[in-house]
Write a structure and sequence with these properties.
The complex is a heterodimer of chains A (about 250) and B (about 325).
Chain A: E1 13-18, H1 27-36, E2 46-47, E3 55-56, E4 60-67, E5 74-81, H2 89-92, E6 99-101, E7 108-110, H3 120-124, E8 130-133, E9 138-141, H4 146-149, H5 162-166, E10 172-176, H6 183-190, E11 207-209, H7 235-244
Parallel strand pairs in A: 1-11
Antiparallel strand pairs in A: 1-10, 2-3, 4-5, 6-7, 8-9
Chain B: H1 5-29, H2 37-60, H3 79-104, H4 110-134, H5 146-169, H6 175-200, H7 208-212, E1 220-224, H8 232-237, H9 241-244, H10 246-270, H11 273-300
Helix pairs in contact in B: 1-2, 1-4, 1-5, 1-11, 2-3, 3-4, 4-5, 5-6, 5-11, 6-10, 10-11
The chains are: A alpha+beta (about 250), B mainly alpha (about 325).
Chain lengths: ~250, ~325
């Protein structure tokens, strides 16, 4: 059924991506590819991988943007993957029933055996989350690592999406965004997490956390202000400083 | 968007076919056509051939054409499925009409009702085709009511011009259809030019700022793409060739799709015999060149918001 769930569960599994922390190392994209090429959508076909014009299916791609000018300008690494939208247009446009949104946790999936490869779902997605595997003739997309997060053969600590498990900087978080008390929901509230392209009005589940503001106005990183003053005025340290100071000392 | 040849052929051929089918249906139901079996054979034959080849062509770009039957199952949510359902339903009254007309030369009474039904389902099919595109928010140039309206209008227009050629070939009265064809050509041209002007002046829907959520920091521009060579998204959504020549292609579409056909439809009305047939057929054929060009532009000029992640800053 490509109608959206009539009575969706309050559980909305998804990701929170912290753009302040992401260093753009592409480990999430690589580990995603590594896991999923043997997972639910296996294989994630590569064509001409060692040639001059390689091409392949990826569920997660890391862009880099520049925002702002001069000293105030920032370089922001930007991982992009399926946002598991609540009003997912990729689901409703599907003519065959291959594309669906799970009632129980909101994960958007493709049943490859029913996909005719018409590509309309990829046209309907503003975020470029779906990619066509020309070798197999079907669409493929992020499964939120459904074969990890419910996998009882794995240690509980490993039951998170591959991108989250591998991120060396801790920039990716997985959890229930439908539960206001969950860690990810609190993170979104604390850090003013936001939706990508809210004007598309398709209510993405995944949220992004903005880069933290600079600590002073001229844009310099002023970590030095938190260090102790080397020439204290008054008090015990001031008396010691005066006592020990002399001509030629390093201030 | 990448203009796939199969989809361009499908939308133009099926538009012609359903337009012609609708005109035949309306004229039969009003008792305005003779029950001559050759007229039925040629009229319905051309219309159904255009529709059937179009539908088959539309399955060529599928990854799994053998599963195409599944594409009618999700009519509750999908305009593509609705189009498939109504397209197939149209064959039922069309078959009733065709068999009765060609084998029994009987097109009145209940058959006239079937003919009317053919006209109704043909129109709904073309409307569904337009809605497939109009329902896509991620392509602002398509997400507007003008799109299904234009699809229906251009299908009616191409159908009318071919219907007129058919009437000339069978030496039947042509004055009413000549008037209808010219009116539809003028309206079609006006609607298309209005669509182009609206899209040229359209306000920005999304920016690289809203796509990344970084607009508070200032202008947002792409520094590095994630991929070193073009990926599926770049090839499917990042098509730029026709946009480069859009002005020239629009002129070609206006001239061959609308202006020249108007002149030759009128010339056909003024001429008689074989020259009238020639003029009306010429109008119909050159019009298709224009409509194919128009359809090419419809796809190639449409910009998908995913390009905001690949270097574009406003869409």
């Amino acid at each position: 059924m490509t109608s959206l769930p009539a009575n969706p569960s309050p559980t909305k599994l998804g990701l929170v991506v912290d753009l302040d922390i992401c260093v753009g190392c592409h480990a999430c994209a690589v580990n995603c590819k590594e896991w999923n090429t043997g997972g639910y959508h296996a294989p994630l076909t590569d064509t001409n991988p060692y040639g001059t014009d390689p091409s392949g299916v990826w569920f997660n791609r890391v862009h880099a943007f520049e925002a702002g000018e001069g000293k105030a300008g920032r370089t922001v690494h930007f991982p992009r993957s399926c946002l598991h939208c609540e009003d997912a247009p990729c689901v409703t446009v599907c003519p065959t029933g291959a594309s669906y949104k799970r009632d129980e946790d909101g994960i958007v999936l493709i049943d490859e055996s029913m996909c005719i490869g018409c590509k309309l779902c990829s046209w309907s997605c503003p975020y470029g989350a779906r990619e066509y595997d020309a070798d197999v003739g079907v669409m493929k997309k992020c499964t939120l690592c459904i074969d990890r997060i419910y996998n009882e053969n794995m240690e509980i600590v490993d039951r998170v999406p591959a991108c989250v498990a591998t991120c060396p900087a801790g920039a990716r978080h997985f959890g229930d965004l439908g539960d206001p008390a969950s860690d990810v929901s609190r993170l979104v509230v604390d850090r003013d997490g936001y939706d990508l392209m809210p004007e598309m009005e398709i209510r993405p589940t995944n949220k992004y956390l903005p880069p933290r503001p600079r600590r002073d106005e001229d844009g310099a990183i002023t970590a030095a202000t938190s260090m102790e003053d080397a020439s204290p005025e008054g008090g015990f340290l001031g008396w010691v400083d005066k006592l020990l100071s002399g001509a030629g000392d390093v201030k | 968007m990448n203009p796939a040849y199969s989809v361009i052929f499908f939308t133009t051929a099926s538009g012609l076919g359903y337009g012609l089918l609708a005109f035949i249906g309306v004229f039969v139901s009003l008792g305005l056509l003779p029950a001559d079996r050759w007229l039925g054979l040629w009229g319905l034959g051309v219309a159904l051939a255009a529709i059937t080849f179009g539908l088959l062509a539309s399955t060529f770009h599928l990854g799994h054409p053998e599963r195409a039957w599944r594409a009618v199952t999700q009519w509750r949510s999908s305009w593509l499925a609705r189009e498939g359902v109504v397209a197939l339903l149209t064959y039922v009254p069309a078959a009733v009409l065709g068999i009765s007309w060609v084998f029994f030369e009987q097109i009145s009474g209940g058959i006239a009702l079937a003919a009317l039904l053919v006209a109704v389902t043909s129109t709904i099919t073309v409307y569904c085709t337009g809605m497939i595109y109009a329902s896509i928010k991620a392509i602002p140039a398509w997400h507007q009511t003008a799109v299904p309206v234009n699809y229906v209008l251009l299908a009616a227009m191409t159908g009318a011009v071919w219907f007129l050629a058919l009437l000339h070939i069978f030496d039947l009265p042509t004055v009413p259809v000549t008037v209808i064809a010219v009116v539809l050509l003028v309206f079609g041209l006006a609607a298309k030019m209005n669509y182009w002007r609206q899209n040229d002046d359209a306000p920005v829907t999304s920016t690289s700022g809203t796509a990344t959520g970084l607009s508070e920091l200032g202008d947002v521009r792409l520094l590095e793409t994630p991929n070193t060579s073009a990926n599926y998204l770049n090839k499917e959504m990042g098509f730029k060739v026709a946009r480069k020549h859009a002005v020239k292609l629009r002129r070609i579409a206006i001239a061959t799709g609308f202006v020249v056909p108007i002149i030759f439809v009128i010339l056909a009305a003024l001429a008689s015999g074989i020259s009238a047939v020639f003029f009306s057929l010429f109008a119909a054929i050159i019009m298709m060149i224009g409509i194919v060009t128009e359809r090419w532009l419809f796809f190639a000029e449409a910009r998908h918001v995913v390009n905001l992640y690949y270097g574009e800053t406003t869409i």
